[in-house]
Amino acid sequence: MPTSCRRNMYTLLNTDNKARRGILSTPRGDIQTPFFMNVATAAAIKGGISAPELADLKCQVMLCNTYHLHIRPGDELIAQMGGLHKFTNWTRPILTDSGGFQVFSLGRDFPGVKPPRIKEEGVYFSSHIDGKKIFMGPEESMQIQRNLGANIVMAFDECIPSGQSRKYVEESCNRTTRWLKRCMACSPPEAALFGINQGGVYTDIRIKHMQELVELTEKSGEAGKTGLPAGYAIGGLAVGEAKEDMFNVIEAVEPFMPATKPRYLMGVGTPSDIIEAVFRGIDMFDCVMPTRNARHGTIFTNEGIMHVGNAKYANDSRPLDESCGCPTCRDFSRAYIRHLFKSQEYLAGRLSSIHNLYFYNNLMERIRTAIEEGRYSEFRGEMSGRLGRLL
User: Fold this and answer.
1) Domain membership of residue 346 as a residue range
2) What is the dihedral of CA 163, 168, 95, 278, to 10 degrees?
3) How far apart are CA 139 and CA 124, in angstroms?
4) What's the pLDDT band for 6 if we cut at 50, 70, 90?
5) How far apart are CA 137 and CA 360, in angstroms?
6) 116 and 26 belong to one structural domain
7) 382 contacts: CB under 8 Å, gap ≥ 6
8) What's the total number of domains in the chain?
9) Rounded to an integer, what distance in angstroms lies between the CA atom of residue 17 and that of residue 38?
10) Are residues 162 and 311 in the same domain?
């Protein structure tokens, strides 16, 4: 693939205040923005949904995880199989995260696994599967993502847990910037590299770090390297901070993010969070919430959040969401899906996951239409509160 495909891929079509409507072009097709990425951590969507089925759920981009796929089955094996697209039979764009979040959260998410050791060269850690000692730095992360065959790759960064001191956050951001420079030097020429903004909830550190990322882009363009990074992500949120802090960070950083580059809020979130973040100028989202919640009977609808296991749905013949056109809502009732959960049938989580993924992707479609028609503020006012209420 020629290096030229790494050039700025984003075309801004419309704005409605800060809300943005655009197109993100990749060799695997155009992505309509704003959009939500369906999370296939280990190259599979939780809930028993295959990659080809995602197309029927209006999914535009599948997100896979560098750390987990490096551990199992191994990125070199996936490369031998023709990359993630052939391995999963997904023909549309794929984004791979750098593995940074997973590496830095090992000690928290997997009891008994030692916390990683952070050095200038990279991170030393142990596999949560078998305890094997592993090293990952910027160069290793880029090579793994290249083996996976992703269209959008994320720079290797340190994902800072909430509650860190200002001094540590500053040191971490400086290291993340140095790591980004190394990623830029060896990123896959066939993919678009995104830099990641860090800084915890310190808005001044966030702003400074974003300015440094933009300066790197300008310098790389002058050096003939096609203006990397090709996009910017806001990382290190949705890790325990208050929601107000998250929105404050977005509002502080957004004015310093170039309008000509896509903007990605990592790991967010609820439908209401997405609506609010789009209102503040964000283009891209991902979260495990649609399928994770679905597997426990929590259903997102246009009227609010439903816990379908509740007794009041035992003889309810209506679909999960009467205004939804997903395969689950076309063919099955609330009563049936509740029965499946009570009977501990695997189909319960699958049907619920199908609905929740369709709901998220259809919500993004409605968001794009509202921006195009210049009525996003009205849409936000109507939907933001409604989608978060309990039914």
Assistant:
1) 299-387
2) 50
3) 14
4) very low
5) 34
6) yes
7) none
8) 2
9) 27
10) no
Reference 190, options 344, 113, 85, 73; nearest CA is 85
Q: Choose among 215, 123, 220: nearest CA to 175.
A: 123
CA distance 304 to 337: 18
Are 263 and 323 part of one and the same domain? no
Residue 344 belongs to a domain: yes
Contacts of 354 (CB under 8 A, 6+ apart): 47, 49, 53, 57, 326, 327, 328
9 plus 134 within the same structural domain:
yes
Distance (Å) of CA 64 to CA 27, 147, 220, 291: 18, 13, 27, 15
Query: Torsions phi, psi of 279, nearest 5?
Result: -60, -30
Angle at 136 between CA 71 and CA 154, to 5 degrees: 90
Q: Could you give the residue numbers annotated as active site?
A: 97, 286
What DSSP designation does 322 have? Answer: T
Two tokens, residue 52 = 């080809």
pLDDT at 227: 66
Within 8 A by CB and 6+ apart from 168, the residues are 160
pLDDT at 109: 74
The share of the chain scoring above pLDDT 70, in percent, equals 95
Tokens representing 349 are: 């989580």
